[in-house]
Task: inverse folding
């Protein structure tokens, strides 16, 4: 059995390559959000291009894929953990990372003070 040397964690930006995020129904009937993650490749402290990986967010029974489809945009930074799968599609076989954990940066900069509601504030 061959050892798989592909990374199980990817940190990069959602790419507009291949048309951006695409919500589809898989063969098993579950919703999947398929997109490409663009990862900078560094060599000798210089940007030496980008690697592109296909990523799949599945949501069996939770609706997460549909929710992320509404907010995921090209350029958004993500940190994903997952497992690799090979899917046979119309264009041949495609290697994809199926997400098991996903992190996105907070919508406000880190360290920004957040005002707590006080008595009498209208919520």
Result:
């Amino acid at each position: 059995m061959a050892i798989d040397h592909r990374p199980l964690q990817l940190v990069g930006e959602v790419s507009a390559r291949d048309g951006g995020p695409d919500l589809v129904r898989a063969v098993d009937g579950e919703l999947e959000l398929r997109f490409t993650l663009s990862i900078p490749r560094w060599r000798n402290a210089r940007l030496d291009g980008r690697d592109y990986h296909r990523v799949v967010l599945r949501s069996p029974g939770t609706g997460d894929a549909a929710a992320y489809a509404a907010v995921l945009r090209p350029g958004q930074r993500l940190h994903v953990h997952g497992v690799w799968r090979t899917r046979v599609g119309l264009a041949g076989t495609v290697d994809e990372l199926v997400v098991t954990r996903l992190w996105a940066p907070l919508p406000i900069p880190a360290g920004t003070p957040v005002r707590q509601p006080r008595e009498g504030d209208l919520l």
Notes: Strands lie at 9-15, 22-25, 31-43, 46-58, 77-89, 92-103. The chain has a mean pLDDT of 85. The chain has one domain: 13-103.
